[in-house]
Amino acid sequence: MAMDRNTRTVVICIAVVAGMTGMAYAAVPFYRWFCQVTGFDGTPRQADAVPDSSLISSRVIRIRFDANVAPGLTWDFAPNERAVDLHVGDVGLTAYTATNYGKAPTRGHATFNVTPEKAGKYFVKVACFCFSDQPLAAGETREMPVNFFVDPAILQDHLVDDITEITLSYTFFPQEVGPTASADGDAPSSAQN
Predict the structure, then answer these.
(1) CATH of the domain at 120
(2) Model pTM?
(3) Does position 174 have pLDDT exceeding 90, yes or no?
(4) Which residue in 31, 43, 50, 102 is deepest, having the highest Cβ count within 10 Å?
């Protein structure tokens, strides 16, 4: 039995609305994945391993560190060092320190970006506190390391020959503290920091 014209129109409209709703929910995780893989919009890439030490170049890029805290999070947050000079392909390690000066446990999640934006696809993080939420007890201070490198592929891209400095910037945002969350029980292991 064939559908009449009105029924077919309703079915098509419902399918279009359902498809658009599904795409809207998939857009955010897809965009986040796309940015992390390509470095688009200044988003640093993530790697499971460091590059071969034979790829270390004589080219040096200064890496600057920036820290911010969004309103609503009772933290002081700052880099332990303002900048490091790093050879392309070499592995850098630095840390940020966060202190919860509030009277209750809190949880924060760091977002990050790299400037200039065109350097994002070459700045790679191996381990970072920003990969997961960070809980802090009232009055607790914690050092949070980040392990990174500048991909040797930057040497082949002459559109970025002018890059002498890269700024890695973090902003911590408050996250809801669940009823079972604890300041130390949910902290990621040191291998993930």
Answers:
(1) 2.60.370.10
(2) 0.67
(3) yes
(4) 43
